[in-house]
Design brief:
The protein has two domains: 197 residues, Alpha-Beta Complex (Quinone Oxidoreductase, Chain A, domain 1), CATH 3.90.180.10; 126 residues, NAD(P)-binding Rossmann-like Domain (Rossmann fold, 3-Layer(aba) Sandwich), CATH 3.40.50. With 346 residues, the protein is α/β, with parallel strands linked by helices. Helix 1 crosses helix 10 and helix 3 packs across helix 9. Helix content is 29%, strand content 27%. The relative contact order is 0.15.
Length: 346
């Protein structure tokens, strides 16, 4: 099978003909129809986030059809349309038993610990597969498991967004753009989108943001306080940079919550402890999503409640996987999500 493999950080991905993976008990081989290109892929490509092995196939936003099943995988049959969840959880630890499987202590992530979806086939645990309903295109199904379910989890489970509350979204790339849509859908009374790129902000306005703030023109926290008369109930940080995290916290009203979704490596600075105590701020991390989150997001799309028709910014063949990473890094075209189609042109 053809796969785009990372051999060393920063080097172009190599298109290589690799043997089909051998299936162990409980594993399934999936013919990849589409794989989203995420900021995490970019971080791993550049070496900012380590991978467990090299060479490795990147890509963790995967949808396709079942090609073969190993022993003890009878839940699935050939040609079933599926979404492949990025994290392979154990199903037995305290987190899995409490329906917080995104925090599984033994979790292995496709495209980081295991070979991922920048390939024509991917091997995954049968328990990581979720049915893709008829009527949802594979390229939309692929991005649901991360680019959409991740901000959904951050808003609903970690941020505990309530109808009528105000929300500020810091960073309007793939995660932030969907966060704006979802916040409106979930009943937020005021949604403020913040970015440094005006086209991304205009897109956020079209998708439901009540207000937009260009961080190049005004300190975001000052703009948020001006627009809300005291700060927001919930700030969602989708960048992963110390400065944006600080701005998110400073944008809160007393009693507000800041949820950090962006993945960064630099230490963060926060206001003095006295200010946290006095204003009862909460700063929360949010990682990925649970199976329950994904099920809810799938239902929103299936019912027509959530429209993702504008989420795919470009489609590229497998041979252009490195180009897709470069496009994401340069923000060419201000993409929401780029998608690799491994069988394009075949």
């Amino acid at each position: 099978m053809l796969a785009a493999r990372l051999h060393s950080p920063g080097a172009p991905l190599k298109i290589e003909d690799c043997p089909l993976p051998t299936l162990e008990p409980g594993e399934v081989l999936v013919r990849v129809a589409a794989c989203g290109v995420c900021g995490s892929d970019l971080h791993m490509w550049r070496g900012a986030v380590p991978v467990r092995k090299t060479p490795i196939v990147l890509g963790h936003e995967i949808a396709g059809t079942v090609a073969a099943c190993g022993p003890e995988s009878s839940t699935w049959k050939a040609d079933d349309a599926v979404i492949v969840r990025a994290g392979a959880s154990c199903g037995n630890c305290r987190h899995c038993r409490s329906r917080r499987d995104n925090l599984c202590s033994g979790q292995r992530v496709l495209g980081m610990d295991l070979d991922g979806g920048f390939a024509r086939y991917v091997k995954a645990p049968a328990a990581s597969l979720v049915p893709l309903p008829d009527g949802i295109p594979s390229e939309i199904g692929a991005i649901l498991a991360d680019a959409v379910a991740t901000p959904f989890h951050a808003l609903t489970e970690r941020g505990a967004l309530q109808p009528g509350e105000s929300v500020a979204v810091f960073g309007c790339g793939g995660l932030g753009t969907h966060a704006v849509q979802l916040a409106r859908l979930l009943g937020a009374g005021q949604v403020i989108a913040i970015d440094v790129r005006q086209p991304a902000l205009e897109r956020a306005r079209e998708l439901g943001a009540h207000e937009i703030v260009n961080a190049e023109s005004e300190a975001p926290y000052k703009a948020v306080h001006r627009l809300t008369e005291g700060g927001v109930d919930l700030a969602l940080e989708c960048v992963g940079q110390p400065e944006t995290i600080t701005q998110a916290v400073r944008s809160l009203r007393p009693g507000g919550r800041a949820v950090i979704v962006g993945m960064g490596q630099e230490p963060i600075g926060l206001p003095p402890p006295a200010l946290f105590a006095w204003r009862e701020y909460a700063v929360l991390g949010s990682f990925g999503s649970t199976r329950a989150d994904l099920d809810r997001v799938i239902e929103l799309v299936k019912s027509g409640t959530l429209d993702l028709s504008g989420s795919i910014s470009a489609r590229l063949p497998l041979e252009e996987a490195s180009k897709a990473l470069e496009m994401l890094e340069s923000k060419e075209g201000d993409p929401v999500r780029l998608v690799i189609l491994p069988w394009e042109g075949v």
